[in-house]
Amino acid sequence: MTVAETPSRDDATSAEVAISIRDVDKVYGQAESAVLALDAIDLDIRRGEFVTLIGPSGCGKTTLLRIIAGLEAPSVGTVGFGPRATDGPLRSMVFQEHGVLPWMTVLDNVAYGLRVRGVPKAQRLEVARSYIRMLGLTRFENAYPRQLSGGMRQRVSVARAFANDPEILLMDEPFGALDEQTRMMVHADLLRLWQEHRKTVVFVTHSLSEAVLLSDRIVVMSSRPGRIKESISVPLERPRHISEAQSSPEFAAVRGRLWDALRDEIELLNAQEASAPPIPRRSVWRRLIR
Ligand code: ADP
Ligand code: MG
Question: What phi-psi label fits residue 146: left (phi over 0), alpha (psi between -120 and 50 degrees) or beta?
Answer without folding.
Answer: alpha
